[in-house]
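Quick one: structure for this chain?
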Amino acid sequence: METNFETFDMKFFNSFLLTVLLSFIAGIYIPYWWFFAVVAFLVAALIHQKGYKAFFAGFLALFILWFVLAFWMDLSNEGVLSVKIAAILQLDGSKWLLMIVTACIGGLIAGFAALSGSYLRSSNPKKHF
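Got it. Here's what it folds into:
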């Protein structure tokens, strides 16, 4: 069985996987909730990709990570807290919609951080010396 490696983008996969793993680890050991944006920025700066690929890798990595973590927290308290928060946020008590909104917020922050890291890497300042 032969696979087509030309269609598989290894840089995208590596940046996706590295962003997920490092963001999860940073979430455990670093007390700042927003530190995953720094992780996405650094990963995109180190693994250079085009802007849209860096954004999508960061977005997808944190969307999936935050959705899984929100689902895990929902399971741990049998959905009681999720339904109450969804009612407060006027999401009609839908815990699934709350998880999707939560994942989208994390994904957008990480996506824009990764896009910034990609643009930083691709900038070519003129040397004045």
